[in-house]
UniProtKB/TrEMBL annotation:
Residues 3-102 form the Response regulatory domain. The modification 4-aspartylphosphate is found at residue 54. It holds the Pfam family Response_reg. The gene is yehT_1. This is Two-component system response regulator. The keyword Phosphoprotein applies.
């Protein structure tokens, strides 16, 4: 079973992702968080295998949050965004660095 944590400040986005994932037999949604502060605690407590993480959230972004997680115990991360498919070059570079540092 793959343990998943959903992190997004938009309730509708969390609900839509939950609905999509609930139909999968090998996925268990262990929690949902509306911000990075909640999510950091949930990652430590729930130990998810995969973190679905919104990039743009108030106060602490998803990208900033990743830097706050212990690299030794960081789950796999799937970044979520409502941005268009024209991500800026610096953002693409930052995502590559974060994803490859696991």
């Amino acid at each position: 079973m793959i343990k998943v944590l959903i992190v997004d400040d938009e309730p509708l986005a969390r609900e839509n992702l939950r609905i999509q994932l609930q139909g999968q037999d090998d996925i268990e949604i262990v929690g949902e968080c509306a911000n990075a502060v909640e999510a950091i605690g949930a990652v430590h407590k729930l130990r998810p295998d995969v973190l679905f993480l919104d990039i743009q959230m108030p106060r602490i972004s998803g990208l900033e949050m990743v830097g706050m997680l212990d690299p030794e115990h960081r789950p796999y991360i799937v970044f979520l965004t409502a941005l268009t498919n024209t991500l800026s070059r610096p953002l693409k570079s930052m995502l590559l660095i974060i994803c490859s540092s696991r």
